[in-house]
Structure formats: structure tokens, C-alpha cells
Sequence to fold (361 residues):
Amino acid sequence: MTTNERIQEALLAWYRKHARDLPWRRTRDPYAIWLSEVMLQQTRVDTVIPYFDRFLDELPTVEALADASEEKVISLWSGLGYYRRARMLHEGAKAIAKRPFPKTATALQEVRGIGRYTAGAVASIAFGEPAPLVDGNVARVLARLFGIEDDLRKPKGMERIWSIAGTIVAMEDPGSWNQALMELGATVCTPRAPRCLLCPLSKECKARKSGREQELPVMSAKRPPVLQRRVAIALSADNGDVALVRRAASGIFAGMWEIPSIELANGEAHEAAAQRLGRFIGATCSGMAVRGEVVHVLTHRRLEVTVIGAELTSRALRLSPDRAEYDDVALMSRDEGAVRTKSTYGKKLMKMAFPSKTRGR
Ligand code: SF4
Fold:
């Protein structure tokens, strides 16, 4: 038996015994597997489960997703974050619904929004193609198992891992093999304290044999998120309506409604920025007062937003063409505003701006 065969046998036997019972593991439906893989990117398993179940209840097939409105898709995604994933999934479904579901990793990658990892997952789990996949968990396990010293934050390091993943993928049950690698990384070969005593691969593991399991994989330091200071202006009309803007169709929080905000210029006072923002949305207002600060951290950015409340003195709003970040502005009731605000960031702003009406949503 070769080393690779011993590794495959040990890990698959472990997986059959220890795999967590997760909803997407009870199906071979490529659409459901695709959906789960997209949802699981950058989101924890426990968080994904209810979203996955609800999404499939409402949109059970790729055709149903293709026919759904964007509003419906975003609303089912609301709270999961990284909404670009939902939009790409929706676009991909529209492309796939017109033809038979692509069955190979190569064909899947031709669909816009399906990358190498997702293609490998769907092709291996749904169609049994021995296609590799590498996510953070798999990369860590393989780097430790084979004692890879390359920096996994560099393309060369990741290419090496992809190449190893391609040579070790089990031919007989590649779907279980790929899931077993991910499961081992998620539950045993964890980033900080790998539980080598419980690991089915400890006899083969180079990192374990050389006592380097804590040192591998090599990962150069991440760049800290860039700080962006913003001012948001919570504008209310005399009947209680609030002014919201819609983010443009591409870029951060694309298509989302939220309280208008603007990046502070160097050394600019909050009130001056709020007035500049007011001009951009054609608002005349009075009684500006700071309501508080919202902090929201994204992968590469940390947003610190000072929320200022003010009363509108006119209901006429008009977006300046210079404000490319947004493509619409509207007055609406607070309840409607709370419903239309889907992103976690937008909800935080709403809660700070209008605490009594948005609490608990
Ligand atoms: S022996 Fe330890 S370091 Fe090696 S794969 Fe198993 S858990 Fe990871």
C-alpha cells in the first residue's frame, strides 16, 4: 500500500465514523450542494444551517432561483453578509437554468461566479468526479501532513497545495474524501491547537513527526483592515418618514438600502461632512445632533461611522450625479426602512439612528 493509499483509507474510515450530520450532506443535488458551498464561504456552519434550509424551502430548484426576484434572493440572504455571493449565485442560476447542470469542475468554472473551489466541491460531491478542492481547512491539513514550508498567503504556496490536493484525491469516493479533509481541518486539525492524539493521520503526518504542527502552515502576516471614518446622517421628516439611499449595483453593499453616509475628508469636522452629504442628496435640514458611533469590520476595511440625526425641512430629495456610491434616494416610513435595510451594517446604522423603532429586528 502506498503512503497516499494509507492516508486515504485512514481518513475515509474516520470520516464515516465522525462526520457531522449536516443538511447538505444528506443530498447529492448539485444545486443544494452549490448553495451550501457558497453560503459556507466566510460563514460558520451553525449560522448557515437555518439559512440553507429556508433558502431551499423557498427556492428548491435552480430554476426557481433563476426565476426569483433579486429582492427575494437578498431577503433570504439577509443577515448572512457578503451579499455579492448571493448576487453571483443568482446570476449563475440564471445561466445554468437554461441548460443541463454542468457536471465537471471544468464546465462548472465556466459559469460566472463559480470558482475553482466551488467547482471542485460540486463536481466531486454531486457527480463523483475526482476533482480536488482547497479551502483554508484543506490547505492547513495538507501543509501539515506533507510538511509544506511554502507561505500559503502567496500564490506559489497555494498552487503547491492545489497540486498535492490533485494527486491525493481519492478516485473511488472523491466527494467523501474532499469532505473528510475539510471535516478534519474543521474539527481536529484546527488552526491553533491541533488535536493530533485524535487524528487518524498522525502516523503519516510530517508536521506531527517533527513536532512542527503548531508552526505549520507558514502564513505571512495579514495586512490589517484599512480604517475608513464616515459620517451618516439620519434624516427624519415631520411625519416620521426617514431618508434612505440605495447603494449602486456594483461595489461594497451593492444594491442595499441604508442611511446615507460619506467618508470624512482629512481633518474635516463631522458636521461639515454631514452638510456635504446633505447637499449630495438634495436635503435641507436643521437640528443636527450626534446620536452615536457604529463600528463595522469587513475583510479589508474597518468602518467607523458617526451617526448624526437631523430633521428634514423639505421632503424634496434628489441625488447628485457626483455621488456615484448611490443610485437612488427615497423617503419611506421607518417600518419600511427597517424592512428594506438588509445588510448587517445597514441595520447597525438604523438601530443607532432610530433605536426605538428598530430594536430587536
Ligand atoms: S497529526 Fe496533527 S497536525 Fe497532523 S494532520 Fe493530524 S491533527 Fe493535523
Residues 3-209 form a domain with the Endonuclease III; domain 1 fold (CATH 1.10.340.30). The first helix runs from residue 3 to 18.
